[in-house]
Amino acid sequence: MKKLLLILALLSADSFATAKNFCDEVKRIRVWANGSDTYGVWAELKNNPSQCPGGFYLNHNATNKQFIYSLILAAKASNQRICFQVYDVNSKIGNRCRIHYTMHE
């Protein structure tokens, strides 16, 4: 029984989640000023993937929210592509995927 529980725990661990990267130019950015919102930053790509048709979000209380917002804003202002990494496209809020990692191409 202990072995079965251990196997089930390992299979549900984040270490087995596959990261997916989605890259494109930023179409729209929305930012909320107050802490009661669901999304601190909500970004949409020009061509959102079918897995995340509403775009990508960052929680309002995310540790590096200001830095990530700056990267997204810089990509938008310079018409450069940006990449959002998402761990689990099935754990969304609405049709938006939570950003795990952000980078410029």
How confident is the prediction overall: mean pLDDT? 83
List how many beta strands DSSP finds: 7
Termini distance? 47 Å
**Morphology:** globular
> Beta-strand percentage?
25-35%
At the third CATH level, what is the topology name? Answer: OB fold (Dihydrolipoamide Acetyltransferase, E2P)
CATH classification, class level: Mainly Beta
Q: What share of the residues lie within helices?
A: 10-25%
Major sheet strand order: 5-6-3-2-1-4-7
What is the second-level CATH architecture? Beta Barrel
Question: What does the secondary structure layout of this molecule look like, with pairings?
Answer:
Blueprint: H1 2-11, E1 20-31, E2 41-45, E3 56-58, H2 65-77, E4 81-86, E5 92-93, E6 96-98, E7 101-104
Parallel strand pairs: 3-6
Antiparallel strand pairs: 1-2, 1-4, 2-3, 4-7, 5-6
Keywords: Signal
Signal peptide: 1-19
Identify the notable features of this structure and list them briefly.
105 residues; alpha+beta; signal; seven-stranded mixed β-sheet; OB fold (Dihydrolipoamide Acetyltransferase, E2P)
Quick structural gist:
This protein has helices spanning about 1-10, 65-75, and strands spanning about 20-30, 40-45, 55-60, 80-85, 90-95, 95-100, 100-105. With about 100 residues, it is of the alpha+beta class. Strand 5 and strand 6 (about 95-100) form a beta hairpin.
